[in-house]
Amino acid sequence: MPELPEVETVARTLRPQVQDRYIGKTEILFARTLQAGHDLLPLLTGAKIVNARRRAKVLLLDVLTAAASRDVNSEPLILAFHLKMTGQLFVHGLEVEPNKHTKIVFGLHSEQEQALQAGGVKLAAQTNTGSMDNQPQARLFFDDMRTFGYCRIMRPKDLQDWAFWNKLGLEPLEHSANELAERFAAKKGRIKNVLLDQEVVCGIGNIYADEALFRAGIRPDVKTDALAPSRLLKLGTEVQAVLQESIAACGSSIRDYRDANGNVGAFQNTFKAYGRGGEPCTLCGTIMTACRVAGRGTCYCGKCQK
Ligand SMILES: [Zn+2]
User: Fold this and answer.
1) Of the chain's two ends, which shows fewer C-beta atoms within 10 Å, N or C?
2) Looking at per-residue confidence, does 128 or 221 come out higher?
3) Please, which residues have CB less than 5 A from ligand 1, an ion?
4) What is the DSSP string of the chain?
């Protein structure tokens, strides 16, 4: 599953391709992928995409709806995409047709007037409703092979009412290492479970949990209350460092992850712990242990990590 650095990379690579473009026709090719906001679908026609950004592992497109008349102001909406296992967002030219994994298609126009004329909503198994005379410049595809991903169309207040959203923990790169350490200390349990708990600190999955614990010299199955504050601070620092290094390398590509340009990340080439069970530790040469912690495959060095 894409974690914080991968979703951040998608946002950064998608932004220049969608920003300041207008949504024309929206085609929902797989009904279940649109998890919420069906009533807001018509408002997307003519809406301007103003930003692509990330919170936790969720990719957000901020849009501004077209003003319905001089008396009605445009309003902000948010398209939230959770990529889950295999979700991908790509902008394609018109020569690329949706494939069997394409779940939602958004027409993208450079002019609002064209977008409004081309607009309309096509639901799965429906016939075409938009005009064929106004071809978009490009199209944004949400592809998802495993279909666990989803899109929600929301007003800002819907975002505030979304239980998942409200429970999200600290953004690890927007708070100090000290604050992260305090959050870790406040949660009882094995430290890897705590790292993976999105309600404590968000965006960390199996890869960056194993890597941060290795760098901090902490065994994944140690309980948080057995860790001195200085060791939790070290972990907070290493969580931030590994996430930042991975973002700089455009994330880690294990199986399906690609950025919005279709490129793979490079951080997987520098893994010190994740997936390295049975291989020698890069620090001391001890064979790395593979086990299960927090229900997840976990690798650590029994000598360097205590
Ligand atoms: Zn070692």
Assistant:
1) C
2) 221
3) 281, 283-284, 286, 301, 303-304
4) ---HHHHHHHHHHHHHHHTT-EEEEEEESSGGGEEE-GGGGGGGTTPEEEEEEEETTEEEEEEEPPPSBTTB---EEEEEEE-TTTEEEEEE-TTSPP-TTEEEEEEEESSHHHHHHH-EEE-TTPPP-S-SSS--SEEEEEEESSS--EEEEE-HHHHHH-HHHHH--B-TTSS-HHHHHHHHHHS-SBHHHHHH-TTTB-S--HHHHHHHHHHHT--TT-BGGGS-HHHHHHHHHHHHHHHHHHHHTT---STT---TTS---SGGGG-SSTT-TTSBPTTT-PBPEEEEETTEEEEE-TTT--
